[in-house]
């Protein structure tokens, strides 16, 4: 294992905050979230019950109780912020597949913004990156299906599928006068979340594209490899988190802990928008 990062300055590119989707695999209902003795909003629940009953009795077509409740929960969670979503058992399984680093799809990290699917970042060496899809693109149609009205989970489910099957994306891009129509084929996406790149002699860069199940371990291996390549006398290391949408909370914390526990003299620096500032003292 790598010893203390003596005489090694570390620059952190991007922010570790605001994950597009961060998981902790803990109970959804946390008792600490509701203060003891806090009353339930009985009047609001009464209104909810009344509307539920009206839909059941007056809607033009029969409706399924389970579907109504599920949609209500989905809307409630989605209304918190653009990055929150309710996952049923099937959706949760699909999300686990993604964070384990292998699935059939296009290779893009996405979030929901203003009712459209926004590309956070295309993953390197995937159909999406090869087709020229860019960070900041807005997907407005998947084949002939409009995104408006879909949840993020619905859109992700449509984009995933068997390898070599085609899908057509209609995209809005800044400074493009007309929507772009891009057809690409799905592939097995094997996400390598940690990549080490040598810069000038003695300097390296580690890019973390997403926090997956084995990111902490892979990060430790990358740092160890960086030391070996520089005969235990490296000069500087950049940790690049730009366009990282998040992932497993435990993995993110574990990866950061492996760096901060190494004892970077002078602290860990965060760089954003061309500015560099101290984030914390690596020796504290």
From TrEMBL:
Ranges for the PDZ domain? 92-160
One Gene Ontology cellular component annotation?
outer membrane-bounded periplasmic space
Q: Does the keyword Protease apply?
A: yes
Which chain positions lie within coiled-coil regions?
A: none
CDD domains of this UniProt entry? Answer: cpPDZ_CPP-like
Share an example GO biological-process annotation for this protein. Answer: signal transduction
Taken from the record, one Pfam family name reads: PDZ_2
- What InterPro entries does its record include? ClpP/crotonase-like_dom_sf, CtpA/B_N, PDZ, PDZ_sf, Tail-specific_protease
What segment(s) does the record annotate as region Disordered? Answer: 249-284
Alphabetized, the UniProt keywords read:
Hydrolase, Protease, Serine protease
Q: Which PROSITE patterns match?
A: PDZ (PS50106)
SUPFAM superfamilies recorded for this chain?
Answer: ClpP/crotonase, PDZ domain-like
A GO term for molecular function? serine-type peptidase activity
Name the family the entry cites. Belongs to the peptidase S41A family.
Tell me the protein's name: Carboxyl-terminal protease
Q: Which organism is it from?
A: mine drainage metagenome
Q: What is the lineage of its organism?
A: unclassified sequences, metagenomes, ecological metagenomes
């Amino acid at each position: 294992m790598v010893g203390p990062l003596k005489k090694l300055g570390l620059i952190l590119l991007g922010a570790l905050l605001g994950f597009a989707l961060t998981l902790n695999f803990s109970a959804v209902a946390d008792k600490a979230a509701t203060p003891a003795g806090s009353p339930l909003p009985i009047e609001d629940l009464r209104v909810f019950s009344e509307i539920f009953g009206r839909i059941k009795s007056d809607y033009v077509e029969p409706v399924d109780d389970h579907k109504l409740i599920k949609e209500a929960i989905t809307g409630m969670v989605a209304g918190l912020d653009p990055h929150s979503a309710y996952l049923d058992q099937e959706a949760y399984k699909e999300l686990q597949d993604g964070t384990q680093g292998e699935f059939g799809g296009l290779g893009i990290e996405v979030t929901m913004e203003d009712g459209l699917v926004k590309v956070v970042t295309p993953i390197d060496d995937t159909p999406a990156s090869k087709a020229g899809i860019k960070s900041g693109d807005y997907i407005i149609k998947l084949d002939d299906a409009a995104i408006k009205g879909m949840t993020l989970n619905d859109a992700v489910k449509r984009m995933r599928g068997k390898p070599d099957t085609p899908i057509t994306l209609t995209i809005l891009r800044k400074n493009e006068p007309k929507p772009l129509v891009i057809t690409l084929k799905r592939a097995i996406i094997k996400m390598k979340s940690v990549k080490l790149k040598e810069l000038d002699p003695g300097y390296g860069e580690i890019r973390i594209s997403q926090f997956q199940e084995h990111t902490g371990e892979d990060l430790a291996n990358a740092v160890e490899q960086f030391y070996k390549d520089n005969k235990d006398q490296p000069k500087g290391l950049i940790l690049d988190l730009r366009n990282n949408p998040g992932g497993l909370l435990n993995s993110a914390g574990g990866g950061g802990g492996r760096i901060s526990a190494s004892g970077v003299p002078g602290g860990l620096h965060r760089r954003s928008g061309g500015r560099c500032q101290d984030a914390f003292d690596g020796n504290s």
